[in-house]
Amino acid sequence: MLVAQAADMAAGHDVFFRVRSADPFVQSHCPVASITISIPAYNDAPTIASLVEQSAAVASQVTDDYEIFVIDDGSQDETGQILSRLEKTMPRLRVRRHDRNLGFGPTIREAFTLPQTDWVFFIPGDGQIPPSELLELFPHADRYDFVLGHRKYRRDSWSRKVQSWCYNILISLIARRRIRDVNSGGLLRCRALQDIRLRSNSGFIHAEILLELLRRGARVAEIEIRHMPRCFGEASGNKLRVILSTAGEMLLYVGRRLLGR
């Protein structure tokens, strides 16, 4: 069965349900009571100010009850100072600060689980996923528990694209359905994560969230979103230590599933 699925995936056949973006009428009629735009940041000084300001402008189009939640994961550049200045003028901005860099797992886990609103929209602090992509996802909030963004046209290096494709195939095999972009931004109904214990401390955290939601029968869809070129620094996801820790936790997860835990 898994071999057949892999063949389908390699041939581009859809095993995972996709939804097209809704029209403006649907956008204006989608009920979203409250929302958090959640942004993990690490050394994102060049983008964080504009990202926070754009997020507030976009969230206000969706609902009056919103917050912008930034987790500064021990940044060593001016990210912390910029956020402190923004806090003085933006009452909807909430900042959580780590004294040291905790890495992918703890930070992304907090980004999804700490907000107290009905929905959380997750985007990275590097600005490669514009906050306006929320407007592509939230029209489907009345039908799904997790609307995952699909960066169909990724603005990354070829090595990064190949690495991501291979990883998504592996996650698809575990999930037994086609998943195109597990590490992307997404819109999550917060109550869907209630009573789910997340254990990952690596880049596997995105996959763990999705796999556990699917295992509990959550309604999930993928929607195409834009992906912008990186304007500074380099992605940390292709570093060897990140790849090894992610692979290790993926194997541990599969082991727990096989043992029924």
Characterization of the model:
The chain is an alpha/beta fold and 261 residues long. The protein has one domain (2-258): Spore Coat Polysaccharide Biosynthesis Protein SpsA, Chain A (Alpha-Beta Complex), CATH 3.90.550.10. It is built from nine helices and seven strands. It has helices at residues 2-10, 24-28, 45-62, 79-89, 104-113, 134-137, 158-175, 205-215, 240-258; strands at 35-41, 66-72, 93-97, 119-122, 146-150, 186-189, 220-224. Strands 3-2-1-4-6-5-7 form a seven-stranded mixed beta sheet, sandwiched between helices. Helix 3 runs parallel beside helix 4 (79-89). The longest helix is centred in the C-terminal third of the chain and has 19 residues, at 240-258. Residues 1-29 have low confidence and may be disordered.
Provide the fold topology.
Layout: H1 2-10, H2 24-28, E1 35-41, H3 45-62, E2 66-72, H4 79-89, E3 93-97, H5 104-113, E4 119-122, H6 134-137, E5 146-150, H7 158-175, E6 186-189, H8 205-215, E7 220-224, H9 240-258
Parallel strand pairs: 1-2, 1-4, 2-3, 5-7
Antiparallel strand pairs: 4-6, 5-6
